[in-house]
Specification:
CATH class of the largest domain: Alpha Beta
Number of strands: 17
Strand content: 25-35%
Distance between the termini: 38 Å
Order of helices and strands: EHEEHEEEHHHEEEEEEEEEHHEEHH
Number of domains: 2
Helix content: 25-40%
Radius of gyration: 22 Å
Shape: globular
Strand order of the largest sheet: 3-2-4-1-10-9-11-15
CATH superfamily of the largest domain: Aminohydrolase, N-terminal nucleophile (Ntn) domain
C-alpha cells in the first residue's frame, strides 16, 4: 500500500502535493518523492518520511503547475533513494508513480533486457514504465495509447500516474485494484489514493473504477476504458470534513482511530439497533441470512488493532 498525489492547474503544485503526501503517510512512509513539470521533468526522491524529503530539496527550484508525488511502503526493493518513486524512463521523458504490484514484472523485465534496457532500481514500477515507453517508441503512438496497450499485458494491481516531458499540463492515470480519486475544481484537477489531499480545495470528486484510464488536464477530464471507449465521469459530492481525516490532538493516526472506536461503533449501529425491541436490522446481509446460518464454518479476515482500555 502506497500513497499517491497529483495536481494540474493554475496553482503551485509542490505545496499541494507535499501536504497531500503528509495526509497519506498512513499508507506508506519508508520513502517519498515528487516529479514536477518545470521546463522538463524534475524528479526528487528520498528514503524516509515526507519531512526528510522536504529538508533534502529545500532551496531547489520547485516551481511547477503540474506534478505527482508518492509515499511508499516497500514491496519490490528495499527502502532507499534509488527504489523510491517517482521513477524516470530510460529516455528521461516520462516519470511515473505506482501503487500496487505487477506480478509478471519479471517476464516484462527480461523482454526489455533482451532489447538492451538497463534498470537503476529493483522495482516493478520501473519495469512497467519502460515497457510503456518501449511500446510508444515502437508504435509511434500517443502516451495514452501506449499505456492502454501495456496494461493489457499486465498481471496484478495498480494505480499509476504518468507525466510526459512534452506535455506540461497532462497527467495520465489508470487503475486496477488500488483506489484512485480525482478531485474536480475550477480549471484544476487533483488526484489521490483517497480524498484527503484534495478536501480543502474541492468537494466534487470522481472515483475511478477498475480498468479505467484518465486523461487529466486543468480544464478537462476524460475517462476511457481499456477498449478506448469514453466513459462519462460520475461526479459525487463529498460530505467529509477536513478535521475528520487529520490527526488533530493525537500523535499518530492509529492512536486517533483507537480513541474514535466508541463513536465509530455508535455510528455503525445507528439506524440498525433498536434497543427497546431488542433487535438489530442488518439489511445488507438479510438476503444471505439462510446461507450464513447453514454454513459449516465462517472465516473472518481482518487487519488493524483493537485497544484494550485499562481497568479502573
Amino acid at each position: 500500500m502506497c500513497g499517491i498525489v497529483g495536481y494540474t492547474g493554475p496553482r503551485e503544485a509542490y505545496p499541494i502535493i507535499i501536504k497531500g503526501l503528509k495526509r497519506l503517510e498512513y499508507r506508506g512512509y519508508d520513502s517519498t518523492g515528487v516529479a514536477l513539470h518545470n521546463s522538463g521533468l524534475k524528479v526528487y526522491k528520498k528514503k524516509g518520511k515526507v519531512a526528510e524529503l522536504e529538508d533534502a530539496i529545500l532551496g531547489k527550484d520547485l516551481h511547477a503547475n503540474t506534478g505527482i508525488g508518492h509515499t511508499r511502503w516497500a514491496t519490490h526493493g528495499e527502502p532507499c533513494d534509488r527504489n523510491a518513486h517517482p521513477h524516470s524512463s530510460a529516455s528521461g521523458r516520462l516519470a511515473m508513480i505506482h501503487n500496487g504490484i505487477i506480478e509478471n514484472y519479471g517476464q516484462l523485465k527480461q523482454e526489455l533486457v533482451n532489447k538492451g534496457y538497463t534498470f537503476s532500481s529493483d522495482t516493478d514500477t520501473e519495469v512497467l514504465l519502460n515497457f510503456i515507453e518501449e511500446i510508444r517508441n515502437n508504435n509511434s503512438c500517443s502516451l495514452e495509447e501506449a499505456v492502454r496497450v501495456a496494461l493489457k499485458r499486465v498481471t496484478g494491481a495498480y494505480v499509476i500516474l504518468l507525466l510526459d516531458a512534452d506535455d506540461p499540463e497532462t497527467i495520465i492515470a489508470a487503475r486496477k485494484g488500488s483506489p484512485l480519486v480525482i478531485g474536480v475544481g475550477k480549471g484544476e484537477h487533483f488526484l489521490g489514493s483517497d480524498a484527503s489531499p484534495m478536501l480543502e480545495y474541492t468537494k466534487e470528486v470522481v472515483y475511478v473504477n477498475d480498468y479505467e484510464l484518465a486523461i487529466v488536464k486543468p480544464d478537462e477530464l476524460i475517462l476511457k476504458n481499456l477498449g478506448n471507449e469514453k466513459i462519462t465521469p460520475y461526479v459525487q459530492k463529498l460530505d467529509l470534513e477536513l478535521a475528520a481525516i487529520e490527526k488533530g490532538i493525537y500523535e499518530h493516526f492509529m492512536l486517533k482511530e483507537i480513541h474514535e472506536q466508541p463513536q465509530t461503533i455508535f455510528d455503525c449501529l445507528r439506524g440498525r439497533l433498536d434497543a427497546e425491541a431488542g433487535t438489530i436490522t442488518m439489511s445488507g446481509i438479510q438476503q444471505y441470512a439462510e446461507q450464513i446460518m447453514n454454513a459449516n464454518r465462517i472465516i473472518m479476515v481482518a487487519c488493524g488493532k483493537l485497544a484494550r482500555r485499562p481497568r479502573s
